[in-house]
Amino acid sequence: MTSSHLSDASLHSLPERVTIPGYDRSKVVPGIVHLGVGAFHRAHQAAYVDDCLAAGETGWGITGVSLRSADTRDALTPQDGLYTLAIRSSGIEKLQVIGSIGAMLVAPEDPDAVLAVLTDPRTRIVTLTITEKAYLRAAGGGLDTAHPDIVHDLANREMPRTAHGFLAEALARRRAAGTPPFTVLCCDNLPANGATLHRLLTEFAELRDARLGVKGDAGIADHIAHQVAFPSSMVDRIVPATTDADRARIAEELGVEDAWPVMTEPFCQWVVEDNFPGGRPAWEDFGVTMVGDVGPFEDMKLRLLNGSHSAIAYLGLLSGHATVDRAFADPAIRAFVDALWAEAIPTLPKNAGLDTASYTAELAERFSNTALAHRTAQIANDGSQKLPQRIVASALECIEAGAVPEHLTLVIAAWIAACEARGKTLPERHFTDPLDVPLAALFERSLPTEEMVTAVFDLAGFTKDHTGRQTLVEFVATHLVHLKQGGPALALAALGIRSEQS
Hints:
It contains 19 helices and 11 strands. By secondary structure, the protein is of the alpha/beta class. The strands form 3 sheets. A 5-stranded parallel beta sheet has the order 5-2-1-6-7, with helices on both faces. It has a 3-stranded mixed beta sheet with strand order 4-3-9. It is globular, with a radius of gyration of 23 Å. The mean pLDDT is 95.
């Protein structure tokens, strides 16, 4: 065990092979507030910002905000916000210390401090990585106005709990003070994420205005709807959970302790809609693609990367594979992913310049990376929130085009089977989903398969009022019968894919 930890004081004692921040951190001014400082943000946006700071753009330091847990703050604050990014490919690991995060705040502990940094005139961009479920959408896609945290934030404007509450209150205070609004940049896997967050926050602000008895341009809703920029972005980098073995290995390499290093792959992509009235870093100088329309890139990533990731996760779990590389090395799962891509590619935007052949070849290489040990159980979390944009949308478009979504629908069936397998062939709570309680109650009813699939679709809000709904239900029910009778081997064999295939 080492006796000291990573910090500004220990930076220059690190081994030469470790890359350290190439700038004076004391001269960095906070210009970005990030909500949801998890491992992905630290491997992705924070690394891009670190490059910008090293190039002399010192006005874009990051203030991190955790909306729930204090874990990240507790790990990074004693380290002056520093952490190690371990970029891993099979047999090779590059270590880089990232210095772009300065202060760390925990919203439940001190909402006033969070509102203070959000209203600081130096804050010109607010980025978010808070996962799909934290946007608090109802089954129909609108704001879940009955959610207890939304109800709380409407009644307690100065002590918010949600991203919606913090953003609306901060923008209201900035407007009252004559401070220009910040740009809100969503960095999550939501379809049209900027427009989606814009709509949800406007809905929240309308409820807020109604409660205050203000109307029209006197309220904050009109300000958010017409004066605040919400560019969309597409993010991509595989970031497996950090293990104790990772911490021990990194400490050995550094010669000091790092409470929370982050593991990632060499590949990194960020496509951003270029709409920043208050200015932005020169991200394009460091590999970020600035575009007028993120949509085609977003669709390709959601349907080809994220969709196949979900397939690998659920089929992998049901086949006994703990990590993505092991599941992808299974010839039957590998063949299924190829067929899934072939089914999804025709649903992507035409004439958008997408090179799907190169993209899927690169994905195959990334999924084969044995150094990442990306757990299938980690990817399996929150399937009811992820599958609509990753799988269900593609399946419905297949039906509309007269095609048969037999591979896409197996992914939905595998999700249901994996959920039902927890506490039986899989460990209880091996992965989690926002619908775990109603799903468990549904599984206990032992309904006929098609009736049960229909009930799951109702719970998750899949294909509501869509003419292709019954077709999807029937395909999923057929796959689910195969999965229950003979596991993934039988379900894949029914599609002409056998385990001996190479």
